Amino acid sequence: MTKYIRTIAAGLLLSFASASCTDRFEEMNIDPNRVTLDDPAVAAGAANALFSSAISNGLMRAFEFQRVQALYVDLFSQHYATSAPYFNTDKYQMNQTWLNAGWNLFYPRDIANLATIINSENTTSNQKLIARTWKVFLFHRMVDMYGDIPYFNAAKPNEPEKYDSQQAIYDDFFKELKAAADGLDLTVTNSFDNKDVIYGGNTARWKAFANALGMRLVEISEGTAT
Amino acid sequence: MKRKLLLSMVLCLWMAGMATAQERKVTGRVTSSEDSQPLPGVSVIVTGTTTGTTTDAAGGYSISVPATETKLTFSFIGYLKEEVAVGSQTEINISMVQDVSTLNEVVVTALGVERSRKSLGYATQELQGKDLTDVRTPNLINNLAGKVAGVVINQGTQGPGASSRVVLRGDRSLLGNSQPLYVIDGIPIDNTQAGQVGEFGGSDLGDGIGNINPDDIESMSILRGATAAALYGSRAQNGVIMITTKKGAATKDLGISYGVSYSTESPMYDLNFQDQYAQGENGNYLFNNENSWGPKITGQSVEDWNKKTYSLASQDHVGSFFRRGSTLNNSLSINGGTEKTQLYFSATNLTSNGLVPNNQLNRTTLNLRGTVNLSSKLTFDSKITYLNQRIDNRPEGGEGPLNPYSNAIRMPSTVPDSELENYELVGGSGRASQNFFLGNSAIIANPYYVANRFKLREVRNRVIGLASATYKFTDKFSVLVRAGLDTYFDNDDRKVFSGAPLPLAGNSAGGDYRTSSRRVTEFNTDFLLTYNTKIAGDFALNLQGGGNLRRQVSSSSVQNAGGLDIPNFFNVTNGTNRVIGQGFGEKEVQSLYASGQFSYKEFLFLDVTARNDWSSTLPRSAWSYFYPSVSLSAVLSDIIALPQEVSYLKVRGSVAGVGNDTDPYRTVQYLSPSNGVVGTILTNEPTLTIGSRLKPERTRAFETGIEAKFLGNRFGFDFTFYRTNTFNQLATLPQSPTTGFTSQFLNLGNIQNQGIELLLNAKPLAGDFTWDVSLNYTRNRNKVIELDPDGKITNYGLGGNRIANIGAINGQRMGEITTRGFQRDANGAILINPNNGLPLTTANVYVGNANPDWLAGLNNAFSYKGFRFEFLIDGRFGGKVVSHTQAVLAGLGRMDYTLDGREGNLVVAGVRAATNPNGTLQVDDKGKNVPTAVANDRAVTAQGYWQNVGGRANPVGEAFTYDATNIRLRQFTIGYRLPVSLLGRTPFRNVNVSVYGRNLFFLLNRAPMDPEVALNTGLNGQGLDFYGLPSTRSVGVSLNVTL
Questions:
Q1: Which of B161, B559, B67 is nearest to B392 (CA)?
Q2: Residue B8: pLDDT above 60?
Q3: How close, in Å, is residue A35 to chain B by CA atoms?
Q4: Where does B190-272 show beta strands of DSSP type E?
Q5: Would you say B992 and B318 are in contact if contact means Cβ atoms under 8 Å apart?
Q6: How many helices (H) and strands (E) does chain B have?
Q7: Which of A26, A88, B413, B568 lies deepest, with the highest CB count within 10 Å?
Q8: pLDDT the model gives residue B135
Q9: How many other CB atoms are found less than 10 A from the CB of residue B511?
Q10: Element (H, E) at B946
C-alpha cells in the first residue's frame, strides 16, 4: 500500500516537473494581437500597413496641420491673419504647445515607422527605396520649418541624440533620392499593395517623384523655390 | 420538512456511530473561564488516540469513548490544555482557562502553514471573520481601515462595487501597482482593477477582492513584510493578505446559521453651497448659463429654457437627486460532519442600492467546502465558490456629463428641480431628447437624464475552486498536492439613448451601444513536502519543499456600435460606425521553494527560506531568479529571568529578498493595429523595450520588532521597524522623441520605505465587565533614492491633469503634488497685477504629498454578560488633497465662500507687482514678476477673482489644496447575545442582534470633502478630488441566529 502511494506521489511530482519546462516561454511571450516585421508570414502585409500610416500621418492629420502649419507658420509669415487676440503667432510670439505638436509626433510616429520598413530584413528593395523617398519628403518640410534638427541619428534609440545642419541634411536628401531613382526596379509594381494611395503601386511614378522632389529641393536650397 | 430531513440525517449519522458499539457516549459544553461564553472549535480527543471532535458554535460536543479508554483531552489555541477522567460520566462540562504564559497563538503564514506566533521572525496581524461582518462594507477590504497597522486604504468613489486601494508599508512601484497579493486558502486570486476613472470621466470597474463574501471568511492574516511573503514569490513583494475560509467541523448536530443585516447609507458630508445668487453671469439672470454669478435671489419671476415662467428660489439639487442608499445582506450556512467527512455550505445574497438613483449592486455567492479523511493518512479538501455579481448603472467619475454627481453639484441652485426631474422632452418628430438648458454640453448634463438614459450593466460570473490532497507518510513526513482555480467572465453593456447630448452618443442622434467581455483565469498547481522532527534533545527541525506552477490568461473583446441606425435598438448590428477590438495576455511562472525552521527549546527560532522563479514575461537570460530570506525569533521571557510583571517578551528580526517579473509582451518591439482610411494601419509602439537586457525587479526588506505582554495578558505591545528597498523596477522612462520613441521600458529606480508600526493592547477591566482597548500606529517614510540611472530625471511623473501633477521627486517621496500656485514675495505675500487686481501665478508650485505622515486607529470594546459595545476611531495625519471639484465650483460661483464681495468688490490681499514705465509687468531673468512693498488696492469683482483662480481649465491648485488630516468615528457596534437560559426551549442555540454604524462623522476634518476620497484607486489619482461621490455614512441592524 505504502509503496503504491509512494509511486503515485512520485508520479505526481514527475508530472509537475515535466510540465515545468520553459520550452513554451518564448512562444508564450509573443503577443498575438500585435505584429512585428520579423515574422515572415505577416511581414509583407505589415510593411504595407506601416507605410499606410506613414503616408496618412506624414501628410499631417488635420489636428497637427492646423496647429503647426495653419496657426503657426502661415500666421507667422502673415499668409493670413486673425483678429482673435489669443492666436499670438501672428504677433511673432512663440506658442510652445503648437510647436511641440508637430515635433513630438513626427519622430516616434512617422520616422520610426519608415525606419522600421527601411531596416527590416523582411522588406523588399523597392519598399525600402520608396520609404526612403517618402522619408526625404517628410524631413524636408521639418528642416524647412525648424532649421537644424536631428536627422542622421533620428529614430536610432541607441545612438546619441544630435542636431545636424540643414546643409548636411540636404546633402543627404540628394543622396537618398538618387539612390531611390537609380535603384527602383520598375518591373516590380504594387510594392505597398493597395496601401499606396499616392501612386497606386506605379513604381515609375515613384521614381519620377524622387527626381522631381530632388529638383524641388535644389530650388529650395538655392533659394529659387516658388 | 427541512427540519425533519435534518433530523433524519442526524439520526443516520448517530446510528452509524451506534454500529461500532462497545463505546460510551459523552456530551457536554465547553466554556471560557474568563467570560463564561461558549468556546466553539475546541478540540476534544480521547486521550491517547486519534479519535476526536471539535465543539460547535454553542461550545457543545459529543464523542464516543471506547470502553478501553478513560480520559478526554480538551485543547484550544490560547487556552490551557485540560485532561478529564471520564469515569462513568456521560456529560462533561468544562471551563477552559486562558494560557497567558506561553501565548501559543497560532497564525496562518505563507503557504497556509499554521505556526505559533512566538516562532515568527516578522510582524503579522490577524482579523477574525467577525471583524469583517460586524460592520459591513460592500468591499470587505475597506474594513481593514483603522484596524490593521501598516495599511493605507483608499476607497473608490463610484458607488457600491467600487475598487479599493490597499497599500501595505508604502508605495514602492513606479509603474503603479503597489497593492498586496490576496491568497484564499493557499490559492492566490486575481485582483485586477479592470477600469479606472480619469479626469474626464470613466468607470471604476471594481477589483477582485471586493467580490469576496465576508460571511465565508474564518480569518484574515495580514503579512505586511517581504519576509512573510517570500514564499509567495513575485507578487508578494507588496505583502500578502491571506484569507482562510470556513470549513465544516465534526459536530454533534448540524450547525445552521442565518444572518441578515440591513443598513441605510447617506452622504457623510455636504458641500457648502451659496443659496443667495441665481444662475447667470455679471449679476444677470441667464437661463442657458452654467454659472451662479447671477442676480441676488429675491423670488423674481424669470423664464427658463423652455420659456416657462418661474420664480427664482434656491434648491438643494444634491439632496433631491440622491436617494437614501440601502444594503441588505442575507446569509445562510450549514456546517457539519463526522470525524471522516466535514462539509460547509453557504449561500449569501447582497443587494446594495447606491445614492444615485438606479444604481444597484446585487451579488449572490454559493460556497461548498468538503473535507474527507479517507484514512488516517490521506485527507482530501476541496472547495468551490461561485459568485454572480451584477452592477447596474455604476456612476461614472471624473469631470464629464456622465458623472451624475458632478452634474448635480455644478447645477445653479435656482434651476428648478421640477423641470430637471422631467428629464426628457419629446419633440415634434416623436424623438425624445434631454430636457436641459445646455442640451449639447460635453461637460454638464441633466443628472436625472443621465441616471435614467445612460444604462450600464456589468455582470461578473466567477468561480474560485480548490482541490487538495494531503498524505501523511509518517507522523513526521507528509505531502500536499493542490490545484486552485480562479476564473471570471465579465460582460459589460453600455447604452446611450437617442437624444442624449451628442458628445455622449458618439455624435449620433440614434444612440450608442457598446458591449464588451473579459475573461480572466488564474490556475495554480502546487506540491509541498513537509518534514518535522526533533533532532536531538531540545532541537527541532521543520523542513518544507515545494513547487508551484502558475498560469494566468486573460482575454477581452469590445464591440462598439456607434450611431445606432434604428434609435434605441441596442444591437451591435444596428450600429452605423462599428469598431471592434480585442486583447489577450498570457503568462506562466514556475517556482521551486524550500524553507527550514530550526527551533531550540521552543524559545529560539531560526527560519530560512529560498525560492527560485522562472517567469515567461522576462527575456531568456532573466527567466530564472532566486531570492532568500532569513528570520530569527527569540522568546526572551523563556530564556532569561524577567520581573514577574513581564509575562512575555520576544524579539525578532528578518531580512528578505523578493524578485518580481512584469506583464506579458514587454520583451519585443511591436507594431499596433488601428483602423485607417484604406484598411488596417500599423504604428510603431512609442515605448521602446530594451528586450533581452531586462532584469527582474527586486525588493530587499529588513524588519525587526519586539513584542511584550505584562501582568498576565492585561497589557501588551508589539513594535516593528522596517525598511524596504525596491529597485531595478520595471518601468517606463520618458525620452526624447527624436529617438523614435517617447519612452523606454527598462529597469530603473530605487524606492525606499521605512517606518514603524506599533500596536498597544490593554484590558483595563476583566471579569463580568470587560474593557479592551487597542491602539495601532503607523508611520511610513517613503524616499526616492534613485530614479533613472543617469540621474537626469528629477520628477518622475506618476500622473498629471489640469489641476495638479503627481510625481516621484528624486530625493523626496512618491506622491508629491505640484500645482499652479501664487507668486509670492520674500514674506509670503501674494503678488498682485496692479493692472487688473488679480493675483499673479506660476506653474509647478510644490504643495505637499498625497500620503499621510502617520495613521492611528483606536478601538474600544466593552462587554457585560451578553452585551457588547465597540467603537473604532480612525485618524490620518498629514498629507494634502487638491480639489478640482472646489476649483470648478468656486469658478462657477456655487460655493458659499464666493459670496464675499458680490455686492461691491474684492481687494485681494497682497503686494503690487512692479511695472515698467509703459505699464507692463516687470519680469526678472527667471521669468518671474517682481514684488514691490506697496499693498494692493486694485479691486476686482468676486466673479472676476474666482473665475481667474478657479475654473476647470487651468485653476490655481494651490488655492484649492487642503490638509488631508482627519479623524473619524470609523465604526461602532452595539450587540446583544440572548442568554442561553432564554433560548432553552427554542430551537436556537445562539441569537445575536446588533446595531452598527460606519463612517459616522468626522471628529476633525479640515477639507471640504472626505480627504480619503480620491479620483481613482490608482497611483495617479491619489491626493486628488475630482467630483468623487461623497463617502457614505451607514447605519444598520443585524440579526444572527444559529440553530
A1: B161
A2: no
A3: 5
A4: 217-223, 240-245, 255-267
A5: no
A6: 11, 60
A7: B413
A8: 87
A9: 27
A10: helix B942-949
Q: Does B692 touch chain A (CB under 8 A)?
A: no
Residue in B670, B738, B790, B792 to test binding to A, most A beta-carbons within 10 Å: B738
Q: Decide if the complex's ipTM is over 0.90.
A: no
DSSP 8-state secondary structure symbol assigned to residue A42: H
Q: What is the pLDDT of residues B843-861, one digit of tens each?
A: 999 999 999 999 999 999 9
**Phi, psi (degrees; rounded to nearest 5) at B741:** -140, 145
β-partners of residue A133 are none
Number of residues assigned to chain B: 1043
Cβ contacts (< 8 Å) between B682 and chain A: which residues? 35, 46, 49-50, 52-53, 113
Closest by CA position to B60, among listed B983, B769, B766: B983
B688 touches chain A (CB under 8 A): yes
Mind listing the pLDDT tens digit for each residue in B240-261?
A: 999 999 988 877 778 899 999 9
- What is the pLDDT, as a whole number, of residue B499? 80
* Residue B587 forms contact with A (CB below 8 Å): yes
* Dihedral sign, Cα of residue B784, residue B789, residue B795, residue B797: negative
Does the beta carbon of B678 lie under 8 angstroms from any beta carbon of chain A?
A: yes
Instruction: Flag if B549 and A20 touch (Cβ within 8 Å).
Output: yes
- Are the CB atoms for B330 and B348 separated by under 8 Å? yes
Q: CA B783, CA B172: separation in Å to the nearest integer?
A: 9
Give B198's DSSP letter. Answer: B
Q: Considering only CB atoms, which chain A residues are within 8 Å of B679? A: 49, 52, 194-195
Separation CA B65–CA B341 (nearest Å)? 19
**The pLDDT of residue B1017:** 86
Q: Alpha-carbon distance B927 to B929, whole Å? A: 7
DSSP letters for B349-368: EEEEE-SSTT-EEEEEEEEE
Q: What is the phi/psi pair of residue A97, to 5°? A: -60, -45
- Comparison of pLDDT for B116 and B656, the residue scoring more: B656
DSSP-derived secondary structure letter, B1030? P
Which residue is closest to B741 within chain A, CA to CA? Answer: A108
Of B128, B153, B152, which is closest to residue B220 (Cα–Cα)? B128
Beta-strand ranges (E) seen in B739-788 are 743-765, 769-786
pLDDT tens figures, B278-315: 999 999 999 999 999 999 999 999 999 999 999 999 99
pLDDT of residue B7: 45
Angle at B412 between CA B410 and CA B414, to 5 degrees: 155
Q: How far apart are alpha carbons B570 and A218 in whole angstroms? A: 59
Q: What is the mean pLDDT of residues B156-185?
A: 88
% of chain B exceeding 70 in pLDDT: 95
